[in-house]
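User: Hey, quick favor. My workstation is busy. Could you predict this chain's structure for me?
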Amino acid sequence: MNPLALPPALSPDTILLLRYLLTAALLLYLPFLGIVIAGSAASLFLNFFGRENRDDRSLRLSREWIDAVTVNRWVLLLLCLLPYAAIAYTCQRFLGGRSSLPAIAWLVPFGALLAGCLLLSLYRSAIRRTTELPPAPFGAGTAGLLAMISAAFLSFLLLGTLVNPAKLPLVRSNLVFILSWHSLVEFLLFLALSFGLAGGIALRFLSKAGEAGGGPDYETRVRTAGTSFALAGALAVPALVVLYLITLPVTGLST
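Assistant: No problem, here it is.
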């Protein structure tokens, strides 16, 4: 059985259109979602330790980092929800008919994305007013970050069914069977690349704030934080690639 074989009911033109739609949606959804996750994590981390150490530079960087990665509430909702809806529609058409996943499998990540966007928007609005956040907005930001991570992980599991439709009968009977080591490693690799990208954004864009009036101390803080994130992501990638290779199926290793 060819795992990439498509249902015969689809015409060649429909298949080509669906492939373009899936590619475009993934190019919007995955990079943007990764940037939001890594940038939000960096902002929350810097805000927490900035308040603990009374470090104004870290608090300012926390605010500017969340501003840079979320842009604004409507852009965040648009670039997270619409591509995901296109991905869900395309995957269901590819899988087709009785082989498709139950609707709840796609609705849960969508709900997590929606909740994550709204909670991160609340955190962003609060931190723009004051960096001395009370527990409620900080908790909203943390919950929003966890929701976005959950949505990304579930999305990787669902996308895995597209190249392994042989598991679909098991998944339909019990959604627990959607879990796989490959999807977990791929998700961790996605996170590593996202943190590296977030570090690059800090180095490329946020460092200009120091030149625009933040002062050399603030510029140094931005470069240190950006370099740390980028380096951590770069160092994690080779280890995760090795982990991915050693978790290949036995049939793949024997060919």
